[in-house]
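Incident log, structure service

09:12 report received: a user says their structure output differs between two submissions of the same chain.
09:20 pulled the input from the user's history:
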Amino acid sequence: EIIMKSLEMLHMERVLDKITHKDLIEFVKLCHQHNVFDSIEIAIAKIETLLKYYRSKKKDRQDVNELYELEARWYTSLDSEKPDYSVYSDEYYVCDLWTCWVIYSRNYIRSLTLPRLPDGSTIAADMGEVKTVADLGCGFGYTTAALKQLFPLADLYGTNIGETPQCSMCKRVGSECGFTVVNDVAEINNEVDLIFASEYFEHIQPPTVHLDQVIKICNPKYFILANSFGAKSTGHFDTYQTSDKTVSNKKIGRIFNKTLRENNFMQVPTSNWNNRPSYWKRIEGD
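09:34 re-ran on a clean worker, output below:
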C-alpha cells in the first residue's frame, strides 16, 4: 500500500510538471475507445495544432478554423434562444479540453502546492485536512484524478453531463483513479470541504443561483475558482441571469464574487497570475 501511494505521488508529479507526447497518445486512444474520436491520427494532429495556437504570441486563426466554427455554432444557437448543448459532444470540443488541461487547469492544481500565499505558505497547507472534494464540470476526469492524487485520503467527486461519451470516459478514469462521477452535486450524500471549479460557472445559467445551490447542498469550507465570464468561448453566454435581472458577461463576475461574500466567504490574496485560480475561504464562526 505504501509503495502504491508512492507511485501515485510520482505519477502526480509527472502529470502536473510535464505532459509528454505519449500522454497525448494515451488520451486520444482512450477517447477513441469511448467513441469520442473517429480517427486517432486526425485527433492528435488537431490537438497539436491547438496547442501551438494557444502558445503562439502571433495567433493565426485560420489554423484552427474548426474552433471558431464551433464557437459560432454555439452563439448562433443563443441568438435563436435554443442553446445547442450538443457542442459538448463535438470531438473538437474534446480536443480543446485537452489543451485547456495541459495549459491551464493542471497549473491551477499545481499552484495549490506552491508558495503562493503572502506568508510564503501554500494553499493546500492553509486548507489543512481536506476530507471531501468536488470537481465541478470535470470533463474527461484528469483534473479530478490529479486532485485525488493531491488529496489521496479524501473522497473525490466529479460532476459531469450524463449519457455522453465524455462522461463515459470520465467514469472509466474515475474507476481507475479512485473518484466517483455524479451528474449533479445533489447526488453527493455528505458535505464537501473543497469545491474546485475551473471554467465551470460560465457554462451555467443562472450562475449565481447555481452557486447558492452548491453552497446550500455542499456547505463547503473552500472554493478554488478559475472563472472567465467575460471571455468569448463555446458554452459561455453573452448575458447572464441572476435571481432578479439580466446582466452582461462583463458584469456577472463582480456579482458572482458578491454572492460568495454574502455567503460568508472571503477571498484570500495569492500571487497566482491574473488571480487564477482564486482562493475563497469560509469565514470562521459564521
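09:41 both user submissions now match this output. Likely a transient worker issue. Closing.
09:42 reviewer note: The longest strand covers residues 155-159. The CA atoms of residues 199 and 227 lie 5 Å apart.
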